[in-house]
From TrEMBL:
Pfam families reported in the protein's UniProt record: GAF
Superkingdom of source: Bacteria
Entries under InterPro entries matching the protein: GAF (IPR003018), GAF-like_dom_sf (IPR029016), Phosphatase_reg/MetRdx (IPR051330)
Protein family: Belongs to the free Met sulfoxide reductase family.
Protein name: GAF domain-containing protein
Stretches assigned to the GAF domain: 50-152
Length: 160
């Protein structure tokens, strides 16, 4: 498997992605439209992804939202898997090897690493952004910072 470089958050790459995302979402505030565009944008622009999408919170369960990639798990309870852990803890989960994560939910056996960012607006948990990669240790701390920045653009520009 070819190993592709990760993107540093402080490089012009994340600056470019932030500018492109801002332009992409400009003038549209609908949550389904914006999360669908954002998932497609990340899947197209970031190297070495095999899934990019959202799980939105309904009661105590994350429910599949807009995504790009293979079919996925539809419902994830809070506290289960990487997504449920990120949602319950309200902290980004960056997992270098998902096969070593206790309770990992394998929607796609080709996924080897994952980053999940909780979406929190005005203190309210809305859901999570989930990115999977077939590459081990795909997501760096710089990716985390850059992706959290992009999620803030989504949150600021969307009426959730």
């Amino acid at each position: 498997m070819q190993v592709l470089p990760t993107l540093a958050a402080d490089t012009p790459v994340y600056d470019r992605l932030a500018a492109q995302l801002s332009a992409l979402l400009a003038g549209e505030r609908h949550p389904i439209a914006n999360t669908a565009q954002f998932a497609a944008f990340l899947f197209q622009e970031l190297p070495a992804l095999n899934w990019a999408g959202f799980y939105m919170l309904e009661a105590e369960t994350l429910v599949l939202g807009p995504f790009q990639g293979k079919v996925a798990c539809v419902r994830i309870p809070l506290g289960r898997g990487v997504c449920g852990t990120a949602a319950q803890s309200r902290q980004t989960q960056r997992v270098a090897n998902v096969h070593e994560f206790a309770g990992h939910i394998a929607c796609d056996s080709a996924s080897n690493s994952e980053i999940v960012i909780p979406l929190i607006k005005q203190g309210r948990l809305l859901g999570v952004l989930d990115l999977d990669s077939p590459q081990l240790d795909r997501f760096s701390s710089d990716d985390q910072t850059g992706l959290e920045r992009l999620c803030q653009i989504l949150l600021d520009g969307t009426d959730f």
